[in-house]
Amino acid sequence: MSFMKLTASAIAVAAVSATAAAARDQVQIAGSSTVLPYASIVAEAFGENFDFPAPVVQSGGSSAGLKQFCEGVGENTIDIANASRPIKDSEIKTCAENGVTDIIQVRIGYDGIVFASQIDGPAYTAFEPADIYNALAAKVVVDGKLVDNSYAKWNEFNADLPDADILAFIPGTKHGTREVFEEKVMEAGCEASGAKAAFEASGMDAKAAGKACLAIRTDGKSVDIDGDYTETLARISSNPNAIGVFGLAFYENNTDKLKVATMSGIEPKTETIASGDYPVSRPLYFYIKKAHIGVIPGLKEYAEFFVSDDMDGPDGPLAEYGLVSDPELAKTQELVANEETMKSSM
Amino acid sequence: MTDATQFGAEAPKPKTSILELDKRTRKRNAAETRFRYYGMAAVAVGVIFLVVLLGTIVRNGIPAFTQTYITLNVELPAAKLDKKGNRDPAEIAKVTTFGYNGIISDALVTALKDNGVQSDMKDADLRKMLSSSAAAQIRDAVLADPSIIGTTQSFRLLASSRVDGYLKGRVTRESLARDKNLDAAHLDIVDQLQKAGVVSRSFNWSFIFGADASESRPEQAGIGVSMLGSLFMMLVVLCLSLPIGVAASIYLEEFAPKNRFTDLIEVNISNLAAVPSIVFGILGLAVFIQFVHLPQSAPLVGGLVLTLMTLPTIIISTRAALKAVPPSIRDAALGVGASKMQAVFHHVLPLAMPGILTGTIIGLAQALGETAPLLLIGMIGYIASTPPDGIISGFLSPNSAMPAQIYEWAKRADPAYYERAWGGIIILLIFLMTMNIIAIILRRRFERRW
Questions:
Q1: Which member of A120, A180, B149, B239 has the lowest number of beta carbons within 10 Å of its beta carbon?
Q2: CB-count burial class (<10 Å; 0-12, 13-18, 19+) for A198
Q3: Which A-chain residues 230-289 have CB contacts (< 8 A) with chain B?
Q4: For A61, left (φ over 0), alpha (ψ -120 to 50), or beta?
Q5: B165 near B74, Cβ under 8 Å?
Q6: Which residues on adjacent β-strands are paired with residue B202?
Q7: What is the bridge-based pairing of β-strands A80-83 and A28-31?
Q8: First vs last Cα of chain A: how many Å apart?
């Protein structure tokens, strides 16, 4: 009896795999978990308003998404990669080696990165990049000398900050957010606190000094979070003294549990990020395989719908969720309409 | 006799009696009593953990099973929805969901006026009380029946997740103080509308049967489609692992010669049972997706990966069940002239069946709750948004699975998704418990002991 079942199921599987080669009618998207909420909102509205099925949006991170994107051209590969950072030259090269040559880069808007703490915790209401650097860097400047970071409390280096133990939950190195944190906060703080000058004075060249600026202390006062913002939120909820790094949209959905700190005196808001006053922000992108346009039904329509004023405009649902709308949206719309690839636009 | 009496007289009189315990016996007895208390304490700790766990799950998850609705009389003006007036479906479809927002605002204003609620809120702000799915719901109704254009229809629309949270006690006026999604003023309106019966809460069937929704509308999300994904995966697992597992164990147990090679296979089957499931996920990605080119995120691939994971469990339990059948059965069958195969298939296998089925069900229950391998084959994300249309598409079109869906919800920013994740856990647990109960019943009813 079981042999019969075995053959029957083997035949069934064979039949099913044969049909797998048939056309795919759904747009496949993968990549950044920061872009995922926006992509899912667009995908849902796209499914409602068009005759195409709602695209599939997988999460997994910018790098994983771009890696999948560069695997090649064909129905077994994804059509769009979401990324919270621009594509790297090395990735473009890998893409080209696998036959993915025409890539359309679409910037959908900006995402703010905020420092927030428990709502009932100490008054972390104003930070400068130098404060974050002094609290978290491996080496800091004390009395003009470069020493290992031994600060235990915030008010030890800035009397305006509360008398509370230093504890920070920052995104792990696999997150795109980490790069922004390093570039816009640690590097800026390194320069402002005089540590960079001290590194260079100690005989390092500019590149080595820049790298030294990014070293985070390893005595447990700074904790890398490899999970999502929900994990950071859970850690913050159980540590009243801690500060954490969040995306603006995540913070805006959890204002009852978190309070946000200003950076260089600027409150993180859609308006301040759009104007560029709030320093810690980054552009969000998605990348389209041009070779798939016209092959996968609905691909171009999805891209155009994504950047349409209805969705991506300053009053659209994406902005409502926390995306900072791109002031140059009209240009992006044109780019998508003309299917301008990265090479021709560069 | 005399010797004995003499011995008794000479020997020192025993100080103990069976009625009076000596020191060592008391010590031993005390140790036993202590051990009993340890045991009871261990059981009590286990029970407490279970109660706390189940209590938390139920307390956090029950709210997901009710949902807040706002019933509105929506006027569907032809001027907005069908400008040319020819009721051509293609023309009507050109009005996107954004075109319906004004109509919904108007309907809300009318509802406030009808119920005597005073408010000086802007129309667009009023709409924050409703889910953004409302526009799609009305548009679908209009597209399904264009003749309702120009009339006023009553719609039961989903309230936004914040309003829903307010009725469930999750959202308060204080917690909204800095929330840009809803204001305390909205809650005053909700209070009055609730009294008037416009806002009401009822059982949430769409949570059990519905599809996943995007991050901005947790109120619409349901676990139904990912439940189908799990079902198709379990079908693949059952159809592959049961025959392969049973055939392998029958061969190993009844036919295979005992030598180094079969020993090696046996050891490796036990090893496979202990391999972390994520390993099978990577294997699935490399073999099924990148090499065989099966579609991504498909329940078929998920089922194949989980089959690899379930096989050792089934083989081990099947072999145990076959071993438990006494040799006398085989000997008797062979004695009356049955071939080896006849003895196995006519006598041993039927007797071992309850054990095999129990093992299979427990293996399936394990596979049902598995998330890690699904991470790698792309079954996590915003995927289970449309139900599959047909059986082939059920196997091949992208879908999620119940545990993957729960994981995805737990990650999302909106606190309403947290509640949904707990609700999903309740449903998953009900499935697992049912499967385990079936396994127990099978074992109790049909298993024979010799």
A1: A120
A2: buried
A3: 230, 249-250, 252-256
A4: left
A5: no
A6: B67
A7: parallel
A8: 65
Strand A103-118 and strand A258-260: pairing?
Answer: antiparallel
Cβ separation B413–A229 shorter than 8 A: yes
pLDDT tens digits for range B281-308:
898 888 998 888 888 889 999 999 999 9
Q: Which residues of B413-442 are buried (b: 16+ CB within 10 A; e: fewer)?
A: bbbbbbbbbbbbbbbbeebbeebeeebeeb
Whether B295 and A20 lie within 8 Å, measured CB to CB: yes
Distance separating alpha carbons of residues B67 and B296, to the nearest angstrom: 33
CA–CA separation, A223 and A253 (whole Å): 23
Domains of chain A, CATH where assigned: 28-110+282-338 (3.40.190.10), 112-281 (3.40.190.10)
Q: Confirm if A187 and A174 have CB atoms less than 8 A apart.
A: no
Alpha helices in B64-177 (DSSP H): 78-81, 89-93, 101-114, 123-126, 133-144, 161-167
CA dist A170 and A184 (Å) reads 14
Give SS3 for B261. Answer: helix
Closest alpha carbon to B420 in B431, B408, B409: B409
Name the residue with tokens 């409302």.
Answer: B134
DSSP type of residue A307: T
Within 10 Å of residue B71's Cβ, how many Cβ atoms? Answer: 14
- What is the Cα Rg of chain A in Å? 23
Helix (H), strand (E) at residue B61:
helix B23-61
Contact A48 B383 (CB under 8 A): no
DSSP letter assigned to residue A128: -
Q: What is the reported pTM?
A: 0.84
ipTM: 0.81
Q: Is the pLDDT of residue B140 over 80?
A: yes
Q: Across the interface, do B414 and A228 touch by the CB < 8 Å criterion?
A: no
Report the SS3 class of residue A113: strand
pLDDT in tens, B54-64: 999 999 999 99
CB contacts, 8 Å: A47 with chain B? 385-386
Annotated domain spans of chain B: 62-203, 224-446
User: Coil, strand or helix: which one is B70?
Assistant: strand
Q: Measured between alpha carbons, how far is A139 from A148 in angstroms, rounded to an integer?
A: 4
Q: Which CATH superfamily is domain B224-446 in?
A: MetI-like (1.10.3720.10)
CA-derived radius of gyration, chain B: 33
